[in-house]
């Protein structure tokens, strides 16, 4: 490996020393380590930077423009090439938690240095990394005489896709990303947020997104040209309220723009380019960052059985919380989420959001006593910090609140930003919001606190750098099955999320609703069978998984033993079979032993599948405990029937499984001695 790096650095030096006049072409290519993916970049005859991407001989991205517009100039043309340099990397890094323990980061890098010929002669550098399963690039704004503080008013980055492939997308303005993902040819899309999941051919699946969103604004894309043979997408950033897109000071870097490229749909889920394009972990000692499961005083509010604010139906009382702590201790859950415990909810929430107080409990909630009680039983409270979008008010209290939680031994918080805008003005997904979220994550890291971020900016793999950011919402989650006037999430929704929102990072979906009818509105409830609720625990990934129902609903339920058995940290993830939006089977191996957990689920259509257990180690026997849809089960009319059976299986076993309409199965595979 060392020799390889040395060779590349020598080559890099040689190339950068070549005078431009000697370089015939203002263009260079870089191939992935195996040579299957090749990126070409250069400057055209008006000095405009561009790139294109191939898989073997097959064109994937055609000539696509690069560059930016600034308030006081243009960084998109009039460039001359200063030079190219190359590097290569092959490392394997360890995740404190994740869908697998070790991640290989193997790429070839090409850096293109540009300077403008006239005027301010500004410099711009573009760094490309090409992996065997995709690519990423970013803009670097070097320190220079004629670029200090600057404002980006447009990012001109293009992604010109060959053909007009089908893509799964979410509109850029879906509130908090809580919308339904839809499939249509790229040319038919409006402005959409990323990730964009592209089904190009039976053997070409891609995901377009960004990685390491730091001090920049979130990426959206929209088609700007569709011709026979191609569709051209252009970057569209979320603005500040005055129209600025990004406020920066050189030296500065943009987030990575990335495209994963897979032969098979299942590969999208195990592709790790996004994580690899993030910076290594900045938290020196990560031993305090844990994984686990939690219950909480939460669904009861969404069921309108209790209120967040103080009053006769207040949910966050000492007595009620104690019941949840006792339940958690009894069933092996490490956390109890409590919402509505602090002053602020009694206000006209949303409008008066700036009154939330993150240290002062309501008088009927013995914050200190409850946490001591929880700790004595091996459990901890998870403090809820709803801000109502008042980010400044929260920032002013961060140190005081996090110091208090740390002193009390509270290890995790759930943050929330329910409001159209932050601080009455700025969009959550703008640079303003991105800066705020980062402040919270960094402050929390200093105080050894893990964060579950609701109403977030779309995740971009930041958990590699800050593993205390354990999950985000940014999804049409379970709560929609409580109060959505249109009936709740449709059955196919859960079969889309693993290939769309989940590619951006762990989701706090809050699975495990066992009482599947009789909710707030007659037709609004989870449109799944009970077995599919169990499958959510394996298919939807987060290192802190909730059993979201009111605890009474878990009483005397044999299905609950699967949730009790489930870990939430994995050494390996395999997707044996799937079709986006139709069905998916996910298998994950426990981080702590050799056991596996499998979840399968289908859309509104019943399905019979043959599941090969060839992911099990050969020569090993496993006891399989299978939780599957019972006879006659189907999601809306008869969601509860479940059959639990036990089998002995091995690497060669093939399980014949029936999934009811919007049903599924969950399997625990216990390695036999
Ligand atoms: C929306 C969040 O998604 C939900 O989990 C929470 O209960 C409410 N906001 C109140 O903060
Ligand atoms: Ca929400």
UniProtKB/TrEMBL annotation:
Q: Name one GO molecular function term.
A: carbohydrate binding
**Domain Glycosyl-hydrolase 97 catalytic: residue ranges:** 298-475
Cited Pfam families: GH97_C (PF14509), GH97_N (PF14508), Glyco_hydro_97 (PF10566)
Q: Which residues form the signal peptide?
A: 1-24
Source organism per entry reads Prevotella vespertina
Q: Tell me where on the tree of life, at the top rank, the source sits.
A: Bacteria
Q: Which ranges of the sequence are coiled-coil? A: none
Q: Does the keyword Signal apply?
A: yes
Q: Which UniProt keywords apply?
A: Calcium, Hydrolase, Signal
In this protein, which residues make up the domain named Glycosyl-hydrolase 97 N-terminal?
30-280
Q: Which cofactor does it need?
A: Ca(2+)
Question: How is the quaternary structure described?
Answer: Monomer.
User: This protein is called what?
Assistant: Glycoside hydrolase family 97 protein
Q: Any idea where the Glycosyl-hydrolase 97 C-terminal oligomerisation domain is?
A: 569-669
